UniProtKB/TrEMBL annotation, chain B:
Location relative to the cell: Cell membrane
One Pfam family here: BPD_transp_1
PROSITE patterns recorded: ABC_TM1 (PS50928)
Protein family according to the UniProt entry: Belongs to the binding-protein-dependent transport system permease family.
Transmembrane annotation, as ranges: 12-34, 81-100, 112-132, 144-165, 186-208, 262-282
Topology versus the membrane: Multi-pass membrane protein
Natural source organism: Neobacillus niacini
An annotated GO cellular component: plasma membrane
Lineage: Bacteria, Bacillati, Bacillota, Bacilli, Bacillales
Name listed for the protein in its UniProt record: Multiple sugar transport system permease protein/putative aldouronate transport system permease protein
Length: 323, 297
Protein backbone atom coordinates (compact mmCIF):
# COMPACT_ATOMS: atom_id res chain seq x y z
CA UNK A 1 0.00 0.00 0.00
CA UNK A 2 2.63 2.39 1.14
CA UNK A 3 4.90 1.55 -1.74
CA UNK A 4 2.24 2.07 -4.36
CA UNK A 5 1.30 5.35 -2.71
CA UNK A 6 4.83 6.58 -3.07
CA UNK A 7 5.02 5.48 -6.67
CA UNK A 8 1.72 7.12 -7.43
CA UNK A 9 2.71 10.45 -5.93
CA UNK A 10 6.04 10.28 -7.73
CA UNK A 11 4.36 9.82 -11.05
CA UNK A 12 2.00 12.72 -10.40
CA UNK A 13 4.94 14.92 -9.48
CA UNK A 14 6.73 14.15 -12.71
CA UNK A 15 3.51 14.77 -14.58
CA UNK A 16 3.09 18.14 -12.93
CA UNK A 17 6.69 18.94 -13.74
CA UNK A 18 6.17 18.04 -17.35
CA UNK A 19 3.09 20.21 -17.41
CA UNK A 20 4.83 23.25 -15.97
CA UNK A 21 7.68 22.72 -18.38
CA UNK A 22 5.21 22.67 -21.21
CA UNK A 23 3.51 25.75 -19.76
CA UNK A 24 6.78 27.53 -19.49
CA UNK A 25 7.58 26.67 -23.08
CA UNK A 26 4.22 27.86 -24.35
CA UNK A 27 4.46 31.00 -22.25
CA UNK A 28 7.85 31.86 -23.67
CA UNK A 29 6.74 30.94 -27.15
CA UNK A 30 3.60 33.02 -26.90
CA UNK A 31 5.52 36.22 -26.24
CA UNK A 32 8.75 35.38 -28.06
CA UNK A 33 8.71 38.76 -29.73
CA UNK A 34 9.02 40.44 -26.36
CA UNK A 35 12.16 38.41 -25.71
CA UNK A 36 13.57 39.46 -29.06
CA UNK A 37 13.01 43.09 -28.10
CA UNK A 38 14.51 42.52 -24.71
CA UNK A 39 17.66 40.68 -25.74
CA UNK A 40 19.81 43.74 -26.51
CA UNK A 41 19.20 45.61 -23.23
CA UNK A 42 19.59 42.37 -21.31
CA UNK A 43 22.94 41.71 -22.94
CA UNK A 44 24.03 45.24 -22.16
CA UNK A 45 23.14 44.82 -18.49
CA UNK A 46 24.88 41.46 -18.25
CA UNK A 47 28.05 42.62 -19.99
CA UNK A 48 28.41 46.12 -18.58
CA UNK A 49 26.98 45.64 -15.11
CA UNK A 50 27.24 41.98 -14.13
CA UNK A 51 30.51 41.08 -15.82
CA UNK A 52 32.28 43.89 -13.87
CA UNK A 53 30.89 42.34 -10.69
CA UNK A 54 32.71 39.17 -11.67
CA UNK A 55 35.69 41.32 -12.63
CA UNK A 56 35.66 42.74 -9.12
CA UNK A 57 36.96 39.35 -7.99
CA UNK A 58 40.43 40.68 -8.81
CA UNK A 59 40.17 42.33 -5.39
CA UNK A 60 40.88 38.90 -3.93
CA UNK A 61 43.68 38.18 -6.40
CA UNK A 62 46.97 39.61 -7.55
CA UNK A 63 45.79 40.80 -10.91
CA UNK A 64 48.17 40.24 -13.75
CA UNK A 65 47.04 41.60 -17.13
CA UNK A 66 48.78 38.71 -18.90
CA UNK A 67 46.99 36.02 -16.91
CA UNK A 68 43.63 37.77 -17.01
CA UNK A 69 40.92 37.93 -14.38
CA UNK A 70 40.38 34.17 -14.17
CA UNK A 71 44.04 33.17 -14.25
CA UNK A 72 45.51 35.51 -11.67
CA UNK A 73 46.48 33.90 -8.37
CA UNK A 74 44.20 34.20 -5.34
CA UNK A 75 45.43 36.11 -2.32
CA UNK A 76 42.29 36.24 -0.20
CA UNK A 77 41.69 39.35 1.84
CA UNK A 78 45.23 40.64 1.63
CA UNK A 79 44.37 43.85 -0.24
CA UNK A 80 41.56 44.64 2.15
CA UNK A 81 43.92 44.16 5.06
CA UNK A 82 46.50 46.46 3.49
CA UNK A 83 43.85 49.11 2.99
CA UNK A 84 42.40 48.87 6.50
CA UNK A 85 45.85 49.06 8.04
CA UNK A 86 47.13 51.88 5.86
CA UNK A 87 47.43 55.44 7.06
CA UNK A 88 45.17 56.58 4.22
CA UNK A 89 42.22 54.44 5.33
CA UNK A 90 41.18 56.55 8.30
CA UNK A 91 41.68 59.82 6.47
CA UNK A 92 39.83 58.74 3.32
CA UNK A 93 36.95 57.22 5.24
CA UNK A 94 36.67 60.28 7.45
CA UNK A 95 36.59 62.59 4.44
CA UNK A 96 34.04 60.46 2.62
CA UNK A 97 31.68 60.18 5.57
CA UNK A 98 32.19 63.79 6.58
CA UNK A 99 31.51 65.15 3.12
CA UNK A 100 28.49 62.87 2.60
CA UNK A 101 26.92 63.69 5.93
CA UNK A 102 27.53 67.39 5.47
CA UNK A 103 25.94 67.34 1.99
CA UNK A 104 23.00 65.28 3.20
CA UNK A 105 22.20 67.42 6.22
CA UNK A 106 22.84 70.81 4.65
CA UNK A 107 21.26 69.91 1.32
CA UNK A 108 18.07 68.33 2.62
CA UNK A 109 16.04 71.17 4.19
CA UNK A 110 16.61 73.97 1.68
CA UNK A 111 14.63 72.50 -1.24
CA UNK A 112 11.73 71.91 1.16
CA UNK A 113 11.88 75.50 2.42
CA UNK A 114 12.03 76.79 -1.15
CA UNK A 115 9.02 74.69 -2.17
CA UNK A 116 6.97 75.88 0.81
CA UNK A 117 7.97 79.44 0.11
CA UNK A 118 7.06 79.21 -3.60
CA UNK A 119 3.76 77.66 -2.62
CA UNK A 120 2.72 80.87 -0.85
CA UNK A 121 3.60 83.19 -3.73
CA UNK A 122 0.45 84.60 -5.33
CA UNK A 123 2.00 86.42 -8.27
CA UNK A 124 2.16 83.80 -10.97
CA UNK A 125 4.80 85.66 -12.94
CA UNK A 126 7.09 86.05 -9.94
CA UNK A 127 6.71 82.37 -9.16
CA UNK A 128 7.56 81.31 -12.72
CA UNK A 129 10.57 83.62 -12.85
CA UNK A 130 11.84 82.32 -9.51
CA UNK A 131 11.46 78.74 -10.70
CA UNK A 132 13.12 79.39 -14.05
CA UNK A 133 16.13 81.02 -12.40
CA UNK A 134 16.60 78.60 -9.53
CA UNK A 135 16.32 75.53 -11.80
CA UNK A 136 18.84 76.83 -14.34
CA UNK A 137 22.15 76.07 -12.56
CA UNK A 138 21.20 72.39 -12.50
CA UNK A 139 22.10 72.20 -16.20
CA UNK A 140 25.57 73.63 -15.87
CA UNK A 141 28.18 70.91 -16.30
CA UNK A 142 30.49 69.90 -13.46
CA UNK A 143 33.51 71.24 -15.25
CA UNK A 144 31.96 74.66 -15.81
CA UNK A 145 30.59 74.64 -12.27
CA UNK A 146 34.05 74.10 -10.82
CA UNK A 147 35.42 76.73 -13.20
CA UNK A 148 32.88 79.22 -11.86
CA UNK A 149 33.75 78.30 -8.27
CA UNK A 150 37.43 78.93 -8.95
CA UNK A 151 36.71 82.32 -10.47
CA UNK A 152 34.29 83.56 -7.88
CA UNK A 153 36.65 82.51 -5.10
CA UNK A 154 39.80 83.69 -6.84
CA UNK A 155 42.10 85.81 -4.64
CA UNK A 156 41.15 88.69 -6.92
CA UNK A 157 37.60 87.55 -7.56
CA UNK A 158 34.35 89.15 -6.45
CA UNK A 159 34.10 87.41 -3.06
CA UNK A 160 37.52 88.62 -2.04
CA UNK A 161 36.76 92.08 -3.43
CA UNK A 162 33.66 92.08 -1.30
CA UNK A 163 35.63 91.03 1.77
CA UNK A 164 38.02 93.96 1.38
CA UNK A 165 35.08 96.18 2.26
CA UNK A 166 35.23 94.62 5.69
CA UNK A 167 38.92 95.22 6.11
CA UNK A 168 40.25 91.90 4.90
CA UNK A 169 43.45 93.12 3.29
CA UNK A 170 44.86 90.17 1.46
CA UNK A 171 42.87 87.97 -0.87
CA UNK A 172 42.08 84.61 0.66
CA UNK A 173 43.07 81.62 -1.45
CA UNK A 174 39.92 79.64 -0.69
CA UNK A 175 40.81 76.65 -2.85
CA UNK A 176 44.21 76.33 -1.22
CA UNK A 177 42.87 75.85 2.28
CA UNK A 178 41.83 72.37 3.29
CA UNK A 179 39.52 73.79 5.95
CA UNK A 180 37.28 75.48 3.42
CA UNK A 181 37.03 72.59 1.01
CA UNK A 182 34.00 70.83 2.44
CA UNK A 183 31.93 73.97 2.81
CA UNK A 184 32.75 75.18 -0.68
CA UNK A 185 31.83 71.78 -2.06
CA UNK A 186 28.55 71.51 -0.18
CA UNK A 187 27.28 75.05 -0.68
CA UNK A 188 28.14 75.20 -4.36
CA UNK A 189 26.18 71.95 -4.64
CA UNK A 190 23.23 73.53 -2.91
CA UNK A 191 23.48 76.57 -5.18
CA UNK A 192 23.33 74.29 -8.18
CA UNK A 193 20.59 71.92 -7.11
CA UNK A 194 18.25 73.64 -4.69
CA UNK A 195 15.78 74.62 -7.41
CA UNK A 196 15.67 71.28 -9.09
CA UNK A 197 15.39 69.52 -5.78
CA UNK A 198 12.30 71.48 -4.86
CA UNK A 199 10.28 70.33 -7.91
CA UNK A 200 9.39 67.06 -6.29
CA UNK A 201 8.14 68.84 -3.15
CA UNK A 202 6.12 71.32 -5.19
CA UNK A 203 4.43 68.35 -6.80
CA UNK A 204 3.74 66.83 -3.41
CA UNK A 205 2.30 70.14 -2.18
CA UNK A 206 -0.22 70.30 -5.02
CA UNK A 207 -1.62 67.01 -3.83
CA UNK A 208 -2.32 68.37 -0.34
CA UNK A 209 -6.10 68.59 -0.17
CA UNK A 210 -7.38 72.21 -0.34
CA UNK A 211 -10.14 71.25 2.09
CA UNK A 212 -7.57 70.84 4.82
CA UNK A 213 -6.40 74.39 4.19
CA UNK A 214 -9.96 75.72 4.12
CA UNK A 215 -10.75 73.99 7.38
CA UNK A 216 -7.60 75.40 8.92
CA UNK A 217 -8.49 78.92 7.74
CA UNK A 218 -11.99 78.61 9.21
CA UNK A 219 -10.39 77.60 12.48
CA UNK A 220 -8.30 80.77 12.34
CA UNK A 221 -4.93 79.19 11.61
CA UNK A 222 -2.21 81.56 10.45
CA UNK A 223 -0.09 80.72 7.41
CA UNK A 224 2.79 79.58 9.54
CA UNK A 225 0.48 77.24 11.41
CA UNK A 226 -0.90 75.92 8.13
CA UNK A 227 2.60 75.23 6.87
CA UNK A 228 3.42 73.43 10.07
CA UNK A 229 0.24 71.41 10.51
CA UNK A 230 -1.00 70.91 6.93
CA UNK A 231 1.80 71.30 4.39
CA UNK A 232 4.68 69.62 6.19
CA UNK A 233 2.74 66.47 7.13
CA UNK A 234 1.52 66.40 3.51
CA UNK A 235 5.03 66.21 2.06
CA UNK A 236 6.51 64.00 4.78
CA UNK A 237 6.25 60.84 2.69
CA UNK A 238 8.07 62.49 -0.22
CA UNK A 239 10.77 63.84 2.08
CA UNK A 240 11.46 60.39 3.48
CA UNK A 241 11.61 58.94 -0.03
CA UNK A 242 14.10 61.58 -1.13
CA UNK A 243 16.16 60.94 1.97
CA UNK A 244 16.31 57.21 1.24
CA UNK A 245 17.28 57.82 -2.36
CA UNK A 246 20.01 60.17 -1.21
CA UNK A 247 21.22 57.59 1.27
CA UNK A 248 21.63 55.12 -1.59
CA UNK A 249 24.11 57.41 -3.29
CA UNK A 250 25.41 58.60 0.06
CA UNK A 251 29.01 57.61 -0.54
CA UNK A 252 29.18 58.82 -4.13
CA UNK A 253 29.72 62.39 -2.92
CA UNK A 254 29.71 63.87 -6.41
CA UNK A 255 32.99 62.18 -7.17
CA UNK A 256 33.48 63.95 -10.50
CA UNK A 257 33.23 67.32 -8.82
CA UNK A 258 35.56 66.39 -5.95
CA UNK A 259 38.14 65.22 -8.45
CA UNK A 260 38.05 68.56 -10.26
CA UNK A 261 38.24 70.60 -7.08
CA UNK A 262 41.10 68.56 -5.71
CA UNK A 263 44.59 70.06 -5.58
CA UNK A 264 47.71 69.23 -3.56
CA UNK A 265 46.93 71.97 -1.04
CA UNK A 266 43.47 70.70 -0.07
CA UNK A 267 44.15 67.01 -0.54
CA UNK A 268 43.98 66.28 3.19
CA UNK A 269 40.29 67.22 3.12
CA UNK A 270 39.38 66.29 -0.44
CA UNK A 271 40.65 62.74 -0.81
CA UNK A 272 37.52 60.55 -0.75
CA UNK A 273 37.17 56.83 -1.47
CA UNK A 274 36.35 57.30 -5.14
CA UNK A 275 39.16 59.71 -5.90
CA UNK A 276 41.51 57.46 -3.97
CA UNK A 277 40.52 54.49 -6.13
CA UNK A 278 41.02 56.59 -9.22
CA UNK A 279 44.41 57.87 -8.12
CA UNK A 280 45.70 54.48 -6.98
CA UNK A 281 44.22 52.45 -9.81
CA UNK A 282 44.39 54.57 -12.92
CA UNK A 283 46.59 57.62 -12.47
CA UNK A 284 49.68 56.33 -10.71
CA UNK A 285 52.65 55.15 -12.74
CA UNK A 286 52.30 51.68 -11.24
CA UNK A 287 48.56 51.04 -11.33
CA UNK A 288 47.54 48.75 -8.49
CA UNK A 289 44.40 47.31 -10.06
CA UNK A 290 43.70 44.72 -7.39
CA UNK A 291 44.22 47.06 -4.47
CA UNK A 292 42.02 49.73 -6.06
CA UNK A 293 39.34 47.16 -6.89
CA UNK A 294 39.33 46.01 -3.26
CA UNK A 295 38.69 49.56 -2.07
CA UNK A 296 35.94 49.87 -4.68
CA UNK A 297 34.26 46.72 -3.38
CA UNK A 298 34.49 48.00 0.16
CA UNK A 299 32.66 51.15 -0.90
CA UNK A 300 29.98 49.31 -2.88
CA UNK A 301 29.31 47.06 0.09
CA UNK A 302 28.98 49.92 2.55
CA UNK A 303 26.66 51.76 0.15
CA UNK A 304 24.56 48.64 -0.31
CA UNK A 305 24.18 48.16 3.43
CA UNK A 306 23.26 51.82 3.83
CA UNK A 307 20.43 51.70 1.31
CA UNK A 308 18.99 48.50 2.79
CA UNK A 309 19.25 49.93 6.29
CA UNK A 310 17.64 53.25 5.42
CA UNK A 311 14.79 51.46 3.70
CA UNK A 312 14.21 49.37 6.82
CA UNK A 313 14.38 52.48 8.93
CA UNK A 314 11.79 54.22 6.77
CA UNK A 315 9.41 51.32 7.23
CA UNK A 316 9.97 51.33 10.95
CA UNK A 317 8.96 54.96 11.33
CA UNK A 318 5.77 54.16 9.49
CA UNK A 319 6.57 55.38 5.98
CA UNK A 320 6.54 53.39 2.79
CA UNK A 321 10.01 52.38 1.77
CA UNK A 322 11.29 51.94 -1.77
CA UNK A 323 10.19 48.32 -1.89
CA UNK B 1 -4.65 79.25 -0.28
CA UNK B 2 -6.18 81.80 -2.60
CA UNK B 3 -8.15 83.61 0.06
CA UNK B 4 -6.44 86.94 0.16
CA UNK B 5 -9.35 88.71 1.76
CA UNK B 6 -9.20 89.26 5.46
CA UNK B 7 -5.55 88.38 5.87
CA UNK B 8 -4.45 88.85 9.42
CA UNK B 9 -1.49 91.04 10.29
CA UNK B 10 0.70 88.06 10.99
CA UNK B 11 -0.11 86.61 7.60
CA UNK B 12 0.72 89.85 5.86
CA UNK B 13 4.08 89.99 7.61
CA UNK B 14 4.65 86.41 6.58
CA UNK B 15 3.88 87.20 2.95
CA UNK B 16 6.26 90.14 2.91
CA UNK B 17 9.03 88.11 4.55
CA UNK B 18 8.40 85.32 2.11
CA UNK B 19 8.82 87.61 -0.89
CA UNK B 20 11.99 89.08 0.58
CA UNK B 21 13.41 85.62 1.26
CA UNK B 22 12.63 84.41 -2.25
CA UNK B 23 14.04 87.52 -3.88
CA UNK B 24 17.28 87.16 -1.96
CA UNK B 25 17.51 83.51 -2.91
CA UNK B 26 16.86 84.21 -6.58
CA UNK B 27 19.44 87.00 -6.59
CA UNK B 28 22.07 84.81 -4.99
CA UNK B 29 21.46 82.13 -7.60
CA UNK B 30 21.54 84.68 -10.38
CA UNK B 31 24.58 86.69 -9.29
CA UNK B 32 27.39 84.27 -10.24
CA UNK B 33 25.84 83.79 -13.68
CA UNK B 34 25.59 87.52 -14.29
CA UNK B 35 29.10 88.05 -13.01
CA UNK B 36 30.55 85.49 -15.42
CA UNK B 37 28.61 86.96 -18.34
CA UNK B 38 29.69 90.51 -17.50
CA UNK B 39 33.31 89.56 -16.99
CA UNK B 40 33.36 87.80 -20.35
CA UNK B 41 32.30 91.06 -21.99
CA UNK B 42 34.90 93.23 -20.25
CA UNK B 43 38.43 94.19 -21.20
CA UNK B 44 41.44 92.12 -20.13
CA UNK B 45 42.62 94.98 -17.99
CA UNK B 46 39.38 95.25 -16.05
CA UNK B 47 39.24 91.48 -15.50
CA UNK B 48 42.85 91.20 -14.38
CA UNK B 49 42.53 94.01 -11.87
CA UNK B 50 39.23 92.64 -10.53
CA UNK B 51 37.17 95.72 -11.29
CA UNK B 52 34.19 93.81 -12.65
CA UNK B 53 31.53 93.09 -10.09
CA UNK B 54 28.16 93.40 -11.77
CA UNK B 55 28.16 95.06 -15.20
CA UNK B 56 30.77 94.79 -17.97
CA UNK B 57 33.65 97.23 -17.51
CA UNK B 58 35.27 98.62 -20.67
CA UNK B 59 33.12 96.54 -22.98
CA UNK B 60 35.10 94.31 -25.35
CA UNK B 61 34.62 91.08 -27.27
CA UNK B 62 38.28 90.10 -27.22
CA UNK B 63 37.65 86.90 -25.24
CA UNK B 64 35.12 85.64 -27.75
CA UNK B 65 37.29 86.64 -30.66
CA UNK B 66 40.20 84.62 -29.24
CA UNK B 67 38.00 81.58 -28.70
CA UNK B 68 36.62 81.66 -32.22
CA UNK B 69 40.14 81.50 -33.55
CA UNK B 70 41.05 78.51 -31.42
CA UNK B 71 40.35 75.36 -33.40
CA UNK B 72 40.59 72.91 -30.48
CA UNK B 73 37.42 74.25 -28.99
CA UNK B 74 35.50 73.75 -32.21
CA UNK B 75 36.77 70.19 -32.53
CA UNK B 76 35.54 69.67 -29.00
CA UNK B 77 32.20 71.20 -29.86
CA UNK B 78 31.86 68.89 -32.84
CA UNK B 79 32.87 65.83 -30.84
CA UNK B 80 30.45 66.68 -28.04
CA UNK B 81 27.68 67.10 -30.58
CA UNK B 82 28.50 63.70 -32.04
CA UNK B 83 28.55 61.98 -28.65
CA UNK B 84 25.33 63.66 -27.70
CA UNK B 85 23.39 62.80 -30.85
CA UNK B 86 24.65 59.25 -31.37
CA UNK B 87 24.73 58.46 -27.67
CA UNK B 88 21.22 59.71 -27.07
CA UNK B 89 19.87 57.79 -30.04
CA UNK B 90 21.39 54.55 -28.78
CA UNK B 91 20.15 55.34 -25.27
CA UNK B 92 16.57 56.00 -26.28
CA UNK B 93 16.30 52.92 -28.51
CA UNK B 94 17.70 50.61 -25.85
CA UNK B 95 15.60 52.17 -23.11
CA UNK B 96 12.40 51.58 -25.05
CA UNK B 97 13.44 48.04 -25.93
CA UNK B 98 13.98 47.33 -22.24
CA UNK B 99 11.04 49.24 -20.85
CA UNK B 100 8.30 47.92 -23.10
CA UNK B 101 8.64 44.19 -22.33
CA UNK B 102 9.08 45.00 -18.64
CA UNK B 103 5.82 46.94 -18.68
CA UNK B 104 3.89 43.92 -19.98
CA UNK B 105 2.27 41.82 -17.30
CA UNK B 106 2.33 38.70 -19.48
CA UNK B 107 6.11 38.95 -20.06
CA UNK B 108 7.23 35.72 -18.49
CA UNK B 109 10.25 36.17 -16.20
CA UNK B 110 9.52 39.86 -15.72
CA UNK B 111 10.16 39.69 -11.98
CA UNK B 112 13.62 38.23 -12.39
CA UNK B 113 14.60 40.64 -15.16
CA UNK B 114 13.31 43.55 -13.14
CA UNK B 115 15.41 42.44 -10.20
CA UNK B 116 18.48 42.07 -12.43
CA UNK B 117 18.02 45.65 -13.62
CA UNK B 118 17.22 47.28 -10.28
CA UNK B 119 20.01 45.49 -8.46
CA UNK B 120 22.58 47.26 -10.63
CA UNK B 121 21.37 50.55 -9.17
CA UNK B 122 22.35 49.41 -5.69
CA UNK B 123 25.52 47.48 -6.29
CA UNK B 124 28.24 47.83 -8.89
CA UNK B 125 31.60 46.34 -9.62
CA UNK B 126 33.42 49.62 -9.29
CA UNK B 127 35.67 51.76 -11.44
CA UNK B 128 38.57 49.38 -12.02
CA UNK B 129 36.64 46.34 -13.31
CA UNK B 130 34.69 48.62 -15.63
CA UNK B 131 37.90 50.10 -16.94
CA UNK B 132 39.41 46.64 -17.49
CA UNK B 133 36.28 45.55 -19.34
CA UNK B 134 36.43 48.50 -21.71
CA UNK B 135 40.10 47.77 -22.23
CA UNK B 136 39.45 44.09 -22.95
CA UNK B 137 36.74 44.94 -25.44
CA UNK B 138 39.28 47.08 -27.31
CA UNK B 139 37.21 50.22 -26.88
CA UNK B 140 39.97 52.29 -25.28
CA UNK B 141 40.68 55.47 -27.16
CA UNK B 142 37.73 55.09 -29.51
CA UNK B 143 34.52 57.05 -29.83
CA UNK B 144 32.49 54.01 -28.82
CA UNK B 145 34.01 54.05 -25.34
CA UNK B 146 31.81 57.02 -24.53
CA UNK B 147 28.67 55.50 -26.03
CA UNK B 148 28.49 51.75 -25.46
CA UNK B 149 29.38 51.55 -21.74
CA UNK B 150 26.72 54.20 -21.04
CA UNK B 151 24.13 52.77 -23.40
CA UNK B 152 21.36 52.54 -20.83
CA UNK B 153 20.33 54.08 -17.54
CA UNK B 154 18.20 51.84 -15.39
CA UNK B 155 16.57 54.85 -13.80
CA UNK B 156 15.26 55.97 -17.19
CA UNK B 157 14.08 52.43 -17.95
CA UNK B 158 12.01 52.54 -14.79
CA UNK B 159 10.37 55.87 -15.54
CA UNK B 160 9.66 54.81 -19.13
CA UNK B 161 8.20 51.54 -17.91
CA UNK B 162 5.88 53.24 -15.46
CA UNK B 163 4.79 55.60 -18.24
CA UNK B 164 3.91 52.66 -20.50
CA UNK B 165 2.08 50.95 -17.66
CA UNK B 166 -0.05 53.98 -16.88
CA UNK B 167 -0.82 55.21 -20.41
CA UNK B 168 -1.19 52.06 -22.50
CA UNK B 169 -4.33 50.31 -21.29
CA UNK B 170 -4.42 46.55 -21.41
CA UNK B 171 -7.67 46.65 -23.39
CA UNK B 172 -5.84 48.35 -26.22
CA UNK B 173 -3.39 45.49 -26.41
CA UNK B 174 -6.15 42.88 -26.23
CA UNK B 175 -8.19 44.43 -28.99
CA UNK B 176 -5.10 44.82 -31.15
CA UNK B 177 -4.24 41.19 -30.57
CA UNK B 178 -7.76 40.18 -31.58
CA UNK B 179 -7.18 42.02 -34.82
CA UNK B 180 -4.06 39.93 -35.33
CA UNK B 181 -1.51 42.54 -34.32
CA UNK B 182 1.76 41.08 -33.05
CA UNK B 183 4.01 42.56 -30.37
CA UNK B 184 6.44 44.22 -32.80
CA UNK B 185 3.67 45.94 -34.67
CA UNK B 186 1.92 46.95 -31.47
CA UNK B 187 5.09 48.58 -30.12
CA UNK B 188 5.86 50.50 -33.30
CA UNK B 189 2.37 51.36 -34.47
CA UNK B 190 0.52 51.89 -31.19
CA UNK B 191 2.85 52.35 -28.24
CA UNK B 192 5.47 54.63 -29.76
CA UNK B 193 3.05 57.17 -31.25
CA UNK B 194 1.45 57.45 -27.81
CA UNK B 195 4.79 57.90 -26.05
CA UNK B 196 6.08 61.20 -27.42
CA UNK B 197 6.12 62.89 -23.97
CA UNK B 198 8.23 60.22 -22.31
CA UNK B 199 10.58 59.97 -25.28
CA UNK B 200 11.10 63.73 -25.06
CA UNK B 201 11.82 63.49 -21.33
CA UNK B 202 14.35 60.69 -21.49
CA UNK B 203 16.02 62.13 -24.60
CA UNK B 204 16.58 65.35 -22.70
CA UNK B 205 17.92 63.56 -19.64
CA UNK B 206 20.32 61.55 -21.76
CA UNK B 207 21.34 64.45 -23.99
CA UNK B 208 22.22 66.75 -21.11
CA UNK B 209 24.10 63.89 -19.47
CA UNK B 210 26.21 63.34 -22.58
CA UNK B 211 26.85 67.03 -23.14
CA UNK B 212 27.97 67.60 -19.56
CA UNK B 213 30.04 64.49 -18.85
CA UNK B 214 33.81 64.50 -18.82
CA UNK B 215 34.95 61.59 -16.69
CA UNK B 216 34.51 58.74 -19.18
CA UNK B 217 36.42 60.76 -21.72
CA UNK B 218 39.13 61.46 -19.17
CA UNK B 219 39.80 57.80 -18.46
CA UNK B 220 39.05 56.20 -21.83
CA UNK B 221 40.42 58.65 -24.38
CA UNK B 222 44.03 59.53 -25.14
CA UNK B 223 43.75 61.09 -28.57
CA UNK B 224 43.08 64.82 -28.30
CA UNK B 225 41.14 64.84 -31.58
CA UNK B 226 38.45 62.70 -29.92
CA UNK B 227 38.05 64.85 -26.81
CA UNK B 228 34.61 66.25 -26.05
CA UNK B 229 34.27 69.91 -25.19
CA UNK B 230 34.10 69.29 -21.43
CA UNK B 231 37.52 67.70 -21.36
CA UNK B 232 39.06 70.62 -23.22
CA UNK B 233 37.28 72.96 -20.84
CA UNK B 234 38.74 71.03 -17.94
CA UNK B 235 42.26 71.65 -19.18
CA UNK B 236 41.68 75.35 -19.50
CA UNK B 237 39.33 76.11 -16.60
CA UNK B 238 40.56 73.69 -13.97
CA UNK B 239 44.07 72.63 -14.90
CA UNK B 240 44.84 76.17 -15.98
CA UNK B 241 46.82 75.04 -18.98
CA UNK B 242 46.29 77.35 -21.91
CA UNK B 243 47.85 76.65 -25.25
CA UNK B 244 50.45 79.40 -25.89
CA UNK B 245 49.33 79.59 -29.51
CA UNK B 246 46.01 80.79 -28.21
CA UNK B 247 47.46 83.88 -26.58
CA UNK B 248 48.50 85.30 -29.93
CA UNK B 249 50.03 88.73 -29.71
CA UNK B 250 49.58 89.28 -25.98
CA UNK B 251 53.23 89.73 -25.24
CA UNK B 252 53.33 91.36 -21.86
CA UNK B 253 52.91 89.11 -18.85
CA UNK B 254 50.18 91.21 -17.27
CA UNK B 255 48.27 91.12 -20.52
CA UNK B 256 48.70 87.40 -20.74
CA UNK B 257 47.28 86.79 -17.29
CA UNK B 258 44.38 89.07 -18.05
CA UNK B 259 43.64 87.36 -21.34
CA UNK B 260 43.82 83.97 -19.71
CA UNK B 261 41.21 85.01 -17.18
CA UNK B 262 39.05 86.61 -19.83
CA UNK B 263 39.23 83.47 -21.96
CA UNK B 264 37.85 81.39 -19.12
CA UNK B 265 34.82 83.60 -18.69
CA UNK B 266 34.08 83.62 -22.39
CA UNK B 267 34.58 79.86 -22.59
CA UNK B 268 32.07 79.25 -19.82
CA UNK B 269 29.51 81.34 -21.65
CA UNK B 270 30.14 79.73 -25.02
CA UNK B 271 30.03 76.18 -23.69
CA UNK B 272 26.94 76.60 -21.53
CA UNK B 273 25.01 78.65 -24.03
CA UNK B 274 23.35 75.83 -26.01
CA UNK B 275 21.98 74.22 -22.87
CA UNK B 276 20.92 77.46 -21.22
CA UNK B 277 19.22 78.80 -24.35
CA UNK B 278 17.30 75.60 -24.91
CA UNK B 279 16.49 75.28 -21.24
CA UNK B 280 13.50 77.64 -20.81
CA UNK B 281 11.74 75.87 -23.69
CA UNK B 282 12.30 72.37 -22.44
CA UNK B 283 12.03 73.10 -18.73
CA UNK B 284 8.55 71.65 -18.47
CA UNK B 285 9.77 68.33 -19.87
CA UNK B 286 12.39 68.10 -17.18
CA UNK B 287 9.84 68.93 -14.55
CA UNK B 288 7.61 66.25 -15.98
CA UNK B 289 10.48 63.78 -15.90
CA UNK B 290 11.13 64.45 -12.24
CA UNK B 291 7.43 63.93 -11.52
CA UNK B 292 7.24 60.63 -13.40
CA UNK B 293 10.46 59.55 -11.72
CA UNK B 294 8.97 60.22 -8.33
CA UNK B 295 6.17 57.76 -8.95
CA UNK B 296 7.04 54.33 -7.77
CA UNK B 297 7.31 51.70 -10.51
Amino acid sequence: MNVTGVVESKSTISEVKRKTKKNLFTKVKKSWQLYVLFILPLMYILVFHYYPMYGASIAFKNFDPVLGIGGSPWVGFEHFKTFFESYDFVRVLKNTLGLSLYSLIAGFPLPIILALSLNYVYSKRFKQAAQLITYAPHFISVVVMVGIIFMILDPRGPINNFLTLFGVKEGINFMGEADYFKSIFVFSGIWQNVGFGCIIYLAALTSVSPELHEAAIVDGASKIRRIWHVDIPGIMQTAVLVLILNMGSFLDTGFEKVLLMQNPLNLSASQVIDTYVYNVGLVSALPQYSYAAAIGIFKSLVAFILIIASNKLAKKVGQDGLW
Amino acid sequence: MNTKIGESRGDRIFTVCNYIFLSLLVLSVLYPLIYVLSASLSSTNAVASGRVWLFPVEFSLLGYKTIFEYSKIWTGYGNSLFYMVVGTTVNVVLTILAAYPLSRRDFYGRGIFMFLFVFTMMFNGGLIPNYLLVQDLGLLNSRWALIIPNALSVFNVIITMSFFKSTIPNELLESAQLDGCNDFKFLFKVVLPLSAPIIAVISLFYAVGHWNSYFSALIYLRDASLFPLQLILRDILVQNSVDPSMMGDATQLANKIGLQQLLKYSLIVVSSLPVLIAYPFVQRFFVKGVMIGSLKG
